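TL;DR need structure tokens for one chain.
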Amino acid sequence: MDRDDFYRREAAIREYIKNGRDINNVLRGSKPLDGSSTYTFFNTVRILDKSINESRLKRTFRLFRGISGEYCQKLMEDIEKGTTSISDWGYASFSYDINVARNYALEKKPLGIIFVYESEVGEMALFVDEADCEILFPRKTKFVFIRIREEIIEGSKVIFIYVEREKSETK
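>> reply
TL;DR here they are.
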């Protein structure tokens, strides 16, 4: 990677750290593109896509992703109807610190979800944020549910969903 590519990648990562929720909401179609130029948005997405596709995990991780609020409620309704997988149009952001995921899962009580994923060496993924111990997986990654369990944490119901990726998507 040359110096210019490195700086562009670092700028895109900083933009994601600052505005990741908004970026993902636009990609998921739940929010219109506003507040930043169309060029800046799509350039950030293009650079992140390229960076993720060129990055590989050097070791295995147990990773966690916490969600709450409307997204969590909708997913629970889908699970009750028989849904056995999830594919996100945004970036799938996981943390190797369960406490980070726990905080997101408890953000909007009384219900939260924590996805648990065992990564493999060589998977496409990008480290983006040391503070949240954050790793991004490519957009549209499909996660298949392999086990679900429930736990009460701080008075909230937290659903742990253990997932795996389609092998064709990982490398």
